């Protein structure tokens, strides 16, 4: 998945030292993550860091809407039938992004992905895209 780099080089190696600041259940999320660069903060706030993923969509590697790919560390926590999310084409945006991705625990996120797949419709994708546009225009980021 293509993205602009928004964090300092070696950010992953700093994760353990920052773990006590984690604000998410099952995922690693810090509201004012000190590893994010100034330019990176702007890219994230405007969602421009996601723009290179359009190349993945054009290549058929991603879709506009679908389950968000996880980093390997988080993916290892997904167990059982929730792993079925991997059978879907990953998306640039999805249900959990428009519902507040930083505040939704990992297990709830994978449930949302499963329900998305089970109840997929073109209208659902249109609604998710419209909500995503609202997030981007309000500069809340996803």
Task: Tag the structure with descriptive keywords.
globular, single chain, 142 residues, two-stranded parallel sheet, mainly alpha, 2 strands
Describe the structure in your own words:
This protein is 39% helix and 4% strand. The chain is mostly helical and 142 residues long. Strands 1-2 form a two-stranded parallel sheet. Helix 4 links the parallel strand 1 and strand 2 (91-93). The mean pLDDT is 89.
Reported for the largest beta sheet, the result is: 2 strands, parallel
Structural class: mainly alpha
Helix percent reads: 25-40%
Q: Provide the residue-averaged pLDDT.
A: 89
Which helices and strands, and how do they pair?
Layout: H1 15-18, H2 38-45, H3 53-58, E1 63-65, H4 72-75, E2 91-93, H5 95-98, H6 106-118, H7 122-137
Parallel strand pairs: 1-2
């Amino acid at each position: 998945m293509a993205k602009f780099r928004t964090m300092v080089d070696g950010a992953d190696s700093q994760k353990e030292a920052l773990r006590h600041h984690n604000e998410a259940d099952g995922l690693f999320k810090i509201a004012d993550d000190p590893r994010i660069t100034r330019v990176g903060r702007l890219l994230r706030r405007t969602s421009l860091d996601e723009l290179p993923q359009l190349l993945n969509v054009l290549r058929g590697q991603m879709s506009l809407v679908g389950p968000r790919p996880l980093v390997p560390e988080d993916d290892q926590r997904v167990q059982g039938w929730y792993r079925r999310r991997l059978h879907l084409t990953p998306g640039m945006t999805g249900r959990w992004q428009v519902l507040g991705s930083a505040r939704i625990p990992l297990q709830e996120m994978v449930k949302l992905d499963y329900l998305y797949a089970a109840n997929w419709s073109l209208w659902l994708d249109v609604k998710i895209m419209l909500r995503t546009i609202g997030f981007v225009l309000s500069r809340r980021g996803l």
